[in-house]
Design goal:
This protein has eleven helices and 20 strands. It has 419 residues and is of the alpha+beta class. The structure holds flavin-adenine dinucleotide. Flavin-adenine dinucleotide binds next to helix 2, strand 5, strand 11, strand 14 and strand 18. The site of flavin-adenine dinucleotide has 38 residues, from helix 2, strand 5, strand 11, strand 14 and strand 18.
Length: 419
């Protein structure tokens, strides 16, 4: 601030504000140790030079997009991974639970991005104010799951994609697709250097629950209200919680059509949240969550240090998740487990399948819908089967019956340790 002769610079939290009194003397430009200040109207030179044509452009650097990029790059494709946020993985919109066997298929566990190792599951049913604890079905020295630190985990996955050869760009949002008839030919993106068009043989839409890629290329990804969970979650600090146990509450009062959770994060912290079926609840998830916490003294003693809200799709993926030159993965393709709401492992599985099929299609010179459909088929024959099974189970138990002991048994098998 002190370099400015007219006192036009003001630092508010992490934002630098330039007042109208600025006389554009540019003294501040050379004072910035990062070289991050540029004269108005100028753009930083791209370093290294940006290729405006890629084999594959992946939109969204969540677990689905990062794994798609990693897979395609490791198979020799030129890959660009675009992320609209300035920091991959942040803010976290997730309870961060994952079963250990699901995780291990894609990445070796690392303490750097693991908050807690889970060995027990507790499921509380409200009907009889009775709490049942299912012991883990694996030897106690093994883990049934983890609570991740996704802020780090997502970034590590993107770093792996970069190491495999993908170019990663943050703070760069896809605004639309380049289309030739009904074939997708690339992406219009906007980043720190402005708007540009990027040609791609295949575009992979991994842009999460808020996905626009499907709509842009004519794939119907709309969700019926009943297939949408509305969630709220606090990170509570200063609570006395079993650091190796994930807690689930099946209670129509607490979370109509859904459930509440407490996932420990170590050091007296836990993700405490709930998801409600959007069509059933007259109260907001945040109101319900606040009440849930207030009614439990062991939670009420904690301080909320983060609040997040988000949606979870709990239906089935649309009939089509590929078109000419374009594929959808993860939440963008609604590939979340309908029973548990867990989507990290499915997004990673879909990312690997899509990245592989896209790379093979590029190598064969055929990126038509027909060629890319091998991804859809592989999904339906693999992780999609379990999704379908869990969707049918969810349908078999209407929301009013989801706090029965029978449902708790089914739910316990689905969470198998952690979500
Ligand atoms: P995301 O992780 O959502 O990543 C999508 C990325 O795309 C984001 O980084 C976004 O910024 C980026 N993006 C979006 N639009 C654009 C654009 N136009 N241009 C560039 N980038 C864009 N799952 C579990 O397995 N376990 C849990 O415990 C769990 N808890 C949850 C709790 C809550 C409250 C919520 C809301 C979800 C939870 N989920 C959980 C679901 C899980 O978070 C998602 O299923 C998972 O993150 C999906 O991964 P993804 O890669 O498909 O999408």
């Amino acid at each position: 601030m002190s370099v400015c002769p007219v006192n036009a610079l003001d630092l508010r939290e992490t934002r630098l504000i330039v007042a109208e009194t600025c006389i554009e003397c540019n003294l501040c430009l050379s004072a910035c140790p990062m070289g991050a200040l540029i004269p108005a109207g100028e753009c930083l030179p791209a370093e290294p030079p940006i290729r405006e044509s890629y084999d594959i452009v992946v939109i969204g650097a969540g677990p689905g997009g990062a794994l798609a990029a990693r897979e395609a790059a490791s198979l020799g494709c030129s890959v660009l991974l675009l992320e609209k946020r300035q920091e991959i993985g942040s803010p976290v919109r997730c309870a961060e639970g994952i079963a250990s066997e699901s995780l291990a298929r894609f990445i070796a566990p690392d303490a750097v991005w693991i908050s807690a190792e889970i060995r027990r599951v507790s499921i509380a049913l409200a009907t009889r104010e009775q709490e049942k604890t299912w012991a883990s079905q694996v030897p106690s020295e093994q883990h049934v799951g983890y609570v991740l630190e996704r802020r780090v985990f997502d970034r590590v996955l993107a770093e792996q994609a970069a190491r495999a050869g993908a170019r990663v760009e943050v703070k760069t949002a896809a605004l639309g697709l380049l289309l030739d008839g009904d074939a997708v030919k690339g992406v219009v993106a906007e980043g720190p250097c402005g708007r540009r068009e990027i040609a791609a043989r295949v575009v992979i839409g991994a842009d999460g629950i808020e996905s626009r890629v499907g709509a842009w290329c004519g794939l119907d990804t709309t969700l019926p209200l009943g297939d949408h969970m509305a969630c709220a979650q606090f990170l509570l600090s200063g609570i006395d919680v079993d650091p190796q146990c994930t807690y689930y509450y099946l209670d129509a009062e607490v979370a109509p059509g859904g459930y509440a959770w407490v996932f420990p994060k170590g050091e007296g912290r836990a993700n405490v949240g709930l998801g409600v079926e959007a069509s059933l609840s007259t109260h907001s998830p945040l109101d319900l969550l606040t009440r849930f916490i207030e009614q439990r003294s062991w939670l009420a003693q904690g301080s909320p240090v983060t609040l997040i809200a988000g949606g979870v799709p709990v239906g089935l993926p649309p009939a089509r998740i590929v078109t000419h030159g374009c594929m959808l993965v993860g939440d963008a393709a609604r590939q979340v487990d309908p029973l548990t709401g867990g989507g990290i492992a499915n997004a990673m599985a879909a990312g690997v399948l899509a990245g592989r099929v896209a790379a093979e299609a590029v190598a064969a010179g055929d990126v038509s819908q027909h060629a890319l459909q091998r991804y859809e088929q592989a999904w339906n024959a693999g992780p999609g089967r379990q999704m379908l099974r869990n969707y049918r189970l969810r349908q078999r138990f209407p929301s009013g019956e989801r706090m029965s002991e029978r449902f708790a048994g089914v739910f316990a098998m689905a969470v198998g340790g952690a979500k």
